[in-house]
Amino acid sequence: MAADELLPEPLPADPLPMFATWFSDARARNVQPNPDAMVVATVGENSAPSARVVLCKRLVPDQGFIVFFTNYDSRKGRELAEHPRAAAVFHWDTIHRQVRLEGPIVFSPAPESDQYFASRALESRVGAWASVQSEPLASRAALVEQVQSVRERLGLLQATEGNVPRPPHWGGVRLWIDTIELWAEGAGRIHDRARWQRTLTKKDEFTFSGGPWTGTRLNP
């Protein structure tokens, strides 16, 4: 990796604009099928961790949060409700960059969830009603039957489009960033790595205000 693609010296006071640039760059280059894919880790019973890949659908760098969407009754939804903090990792192998995030989570305001749900394809909206996410399933055929049942109930058996309301158990999750680590691959595995941390103060049900960032370069 060229020197101008490593982290700057001195480190920026606010890392979120650089994160936003990296995120936009990964999407613009289209070097992998889902550049907005990230691993999200949660904590469940007995402090047992679990992780899965989800899609980051929104980054708000000026406030400092990202948004993904899920079934609130799923394993991750239940774990986030009980332990409202998460970690996330983006890894863009082709452009030699990685971003790690940590912070508290809140469930998104209803208008934010409604807006995104309405933008989804019809089958995805139907599927949000049909899938009892993370729960046992007798067979693939049983899932197909659940989908057909939802289509029938909503009057969509022959439709390719239609009005499907957002399920109350489905919506957005905001991860407010209080810790971020940026990593850039270096020659000879001498990578460039730095971590920033800040204190968040809760303002209301959906919003935090952030204090100043403290940045530290790390050994790779």
Automatic annotation (TrEMBL):
FMN binds at residues 52-57, 69-70, 75-76, 98, 133-134, 183, 193. Binds 1 FMN per subunit. The keyword Flavoprotein applies. Residues 29-152 form the Pyridoxamine 5'-phosphate oxidase N-terminal domain. Its cofactor is FMN. Keywords: Flavoprotein, FMN, Oxidoreductase. Residues 170-220 form the Pyridoxine 5'-phosphate oxidase dimerisation C-terminal domain. Its EC number is 1.4.3.5. It is an enzyme of class 1 (oxidoreductase). InterPro entries: Pyridox_Oxase (IPR000659), Pyridox_Oxase_N (IPR011576), Pyridoxamine_oxidase_dimer_C (IPR019576), Split_barrel_FMN-bd (IPR012349). GO terms for biological process: pyridoxine biosynthetic process. One of its GO terms (molecular function) is FMN binding. Belongs to the pyridoxamine 5'-phosphate oxidase family. NCBIfam families: pdxH (TIGR00558), PRK05679.1 (NF004231). This is Pyridoxamine 5'-phosphate oxidase. It comes from Steroidobacter agaridevorans.
